[in-house]
Input
Amino acid sequence: MTLDLSPSMRRFAAIGLLFVVLALVWSIVAAPLLEVRGTALSTIERLRPVIERGRAAVHDSAALQTELKGLKQRPRSAGGLLAGTNEPIAAAQLQDRLKTTIDHVGGDLRSTQVLQPRDDGAFRRVTVKAQLSVDLPALQQVIYDLEAAMPYLFLDNVEISQRPAARGSPASDDPLLDVSFELSGYMRKSAS
Output
């Protein structure tokens, strides 16, 4: 069964069919492609700062690698360790630091004794036993000065006793204290 259409109706049907085919091509092919293109462009714009940061990181990485090479070529520093080349020199440094610190606060260093050095892992522990007389504020300053500076020092076996006041003398707000402690520092073991 064929329909007999007039020539104007045939043209109208052909043009209508052409529009339907174009609409199908647009909805199936062109519209999805344009949507994908728009998504890709927005992703590119969103990632552009990330790409720039990545380039900067590569540049920074090269600079850091150069700095690391320089640090590796420098001799290793002793950091918080005693600088002496052997135990007697390190012990003398400890005694000197102790004397300077106590003199600075007006205390009285009564005696020092160098104790036997001990191995502690990859390090050697050097210890000096000290006895001194100071008042409480001076003792606080001595402890702070010894433990807060470089090289790292450690106080152990601290004993504090109040010196008895002389008969007939008025009681003081800051009585004199007799203090004994062990002051230790670490040094690298000698490669012998």
Notes: DSSP finds three helices and five strands in the chain. The helical segments are 7-73, 87-104, 136-148. Residues 8-74 form one domain.
